[in-house]
Design brief:
Elements lengths: L1 E5 L10 E7 L6 H9 L3 H7 L10 E5 L8 E8 L8 H16 L5 E5 L10 H16 L18 E5 L5 H26 L7 H14 L3 E6 L1 H6 L3 H7 L7 E8 L8 E11 L19 H16 L4 E11 L11 E3 L5 E3 L7 H12 L6 E6 L3 H7 L4 E5 L2 H13 L4 E3 L4 H4 L9 E2 L7 H10 L7 E5 L5 E2 L5 E2 L4 H12 L3
Helix pairs in contact: 3-4, 4-5, 5-9, 6-9, 8-10, 9-15, 10-14, 12-15
Length: about 500
């Protein structure tokens, strides 16, 4: 996909299609009026007849216009005129509407001459990043395994933003970031959408090794079962022992020559299929448990983005990958296992396995002496009850880090919510037989899960992202969303000083 800017007269732009805005009262935006005058007011006549309502997100393709170089004009509804100008949410919606409409045709190039929010709401570089990100997300097609002939992919391969000359450099900077973000999010989505019999722990390991061959800045190490045993990751090993698929612990490292300070470590939960183990899940929607490795997929996709941009930062990605299966060797409720940190855990529920593999991964992260550690996991159904599918849950032992991540989510339109984690939740995990239990009942389930992880973060500045509600969606539109890739990139750009 190619991204460009156009700083000259819109009517002179040689392109397949130009998208312009129309309010719901039929009023054309200044950009639309410019084209309207050149093509003998054909656009305004169309809106005056009421053929196009201007409802938010509605589109209408107009062809055979004389007086302009574009072959088509796409009218995009803006809805009612807002007193304070267009909001960022509305802007994103109309951009997606324009790109989606273009993909339903054989348009190969599209110019966006749509109204934008004020610069203080949407800066030039963020505009470019959002356009590239939204284009990639809109063009994404699920990597299905259907045997029927695939439909033709969209013809669109070039998107142009009409802008003032002074904005050109910053918009192009944003294009580069947004394109890399879209590529990383697509990798995450592809991995998460694959079935569990294809995307195994070994598959994730090979994918990571492939990234190292593509990007010179990446170094990858994949630990197999013998190496995991040598690391004494007893909790991780307990989860994987009921599966025929061998586990993998994946280390991906990007260290730029100009990187300063200690690394940022990203940790991803990689349960490539979760049956619940002996604490077997109910059959309905169990197929969605292939998405239980979304945290791992996000780490791999984000490391791809970091390497593509070659950010001047030191980032380490850790992925603990295995299956949770219920065979005769599987762990049982009441079993006690020893973590790599040396703490013992009484397993009361084998379906609370994500925290078991993450606790050993968090302990492994300590060897990098990190500046900050962020783990991400589809950890609890409780977070979906608390926040729905709209916000990622952020838990942290450092309030300033939690606020930083929430702010990054707001800036990247990938929102998160600061959730509590503290001693009172940790106290609920007391066990008569071990240092702690792995569950503490239904009340505050996402908080007690985070409190369990917090017990393994002494000496770390740590945050936990519970993405169970945001990383994928079910129903007719079942599939990975790519979240929270945008929030993580914003965080890393700020840390790298590349914002």
């Amino acid at each position: 996909m190619q991204f460009d800017t156009w700083t000259k007269a819109l009517a002179e732009l040689p392109i397949d299609c130009v998208a312009v805005g129309v309010q719901d009262d039929g009023e054309l935006t200044p950009e639309a009026k410019t084209l309207d005058l050149k093509c003998r007011e054909k656009l305004s006549r169309l809106t005056k007849r009421g053929d196009f309502s201007g409802k938010l997100g509605e589109t209408w393709l107009v062809t055979d216009l004389e007086g302009i170089r574009a072959e088509r004009v796409l009218l995009v509804g803006l809805g009612p005129k807002a007193k304070d100008g267009i909001t960022r949410k509305t802007w994103r919606r109309i951009v997606v509407a324009a790109i989606s409409a273009a993909t339903r045709t054989r348009v190969t190039s599209l110019a966006l001459a749509l109204p934008r929010p004020a610069a203080k709401v949407l800066s030039d570089d963020r505009l470019g990043r959002s356009v590239a990100e939204l284009t990639g997300n809109t063009l994404y097609r699920v990597n299905d395994l259907k045997s029927a002939k695939k439909p033709r992919p969209p013809a669109l391969n070039r998107v142009v933003v009409a802008a003032a000359a002074k904005a050109d450099a910053n918009i192009r900077k944003g294009f580069k970031q947004g394109a890399a973000l879209a590529n990383g999010a697509a990798l995450m989505r592809n991995l998460a959408n694959l079935p569990g019999n294809v995307c195994t722990p070994s598959y994730l390991g090979k994918t990571a090794e492939g990234l190292a061959r593509t990007h010179k800045s990446l170094k990858v190490k994949v630990l197999g079962l013998p190496e995991i045993k040598r690391e004494k990751m007893g909790c991780f090993l307990a989860v994987t022992q009921g599966s025929e698929e061998p586990p993998r612990f994946i280390v991906i490292e990007h260290r730029h020559p100009k990187a300063k300070g200690a690394p940022v470590v990203l940790v991803g939960k990689g349960i490539t299929f979760d049956t619940g183990g002996i604490s077997l899940k109910d059959p309905p929607t169990m197929d969605e448990m292939k998405f239980d490795m979304s945290g791992a997929a996000c780490v791999i996709g984000t490391m791809n983005t970091v390497a593509e941009l070659n950010l001047p930062i030191h980032v380490v990605g850790l992925v603990a990958a295995c299956e949770n299966m219920p065979d005769g060797r599987a762990i049982k409720p009441g079993d006690i296992v020893t973590s790599a940190q040396g703490l013992t855990v009484e397993i009361l529920n084998t379906d609370a396995e994500g925290r078991l593999i993450l606790c050993d991964a968090l302990n492994y992260a300590k060897r990098f002496k990190p500046d900050v550690v962020i783990d991400m996991a589809t950890l609890t159904g409780a977070i979906v009850v608390a926040l729905g599918v709209h916000h990622t849950g952020v838990f942290s032992n450092t309030d300033s880090l939690a606020r930083e991540l929430v702010d990054c989510g707001i800036a990247a339109d990938d929102r998160a919510w600061h959730m509590p984690v503290g001693d009172e939740y940790g106290d609920q995990l007391k066990s008569n037989f071990a240092d702690m239990a792995n569950v503490a009942g239904r009340d505050g389930g996402s908080c007690t899960a985070a409190a369990f992880l917090a017990k393994f973060t002494q000496g770390l500045t740590w945050a936990h992202l519970d993405i169970a509600g945001t990383a994928y969606q079910g129903g007719a539109g079942k599939g990975s969303t790519g979240r929270p890739s945008a929030m993580l990139l914003e965080f890393l750009l700020r840390r790298a000083g590349a914002r």
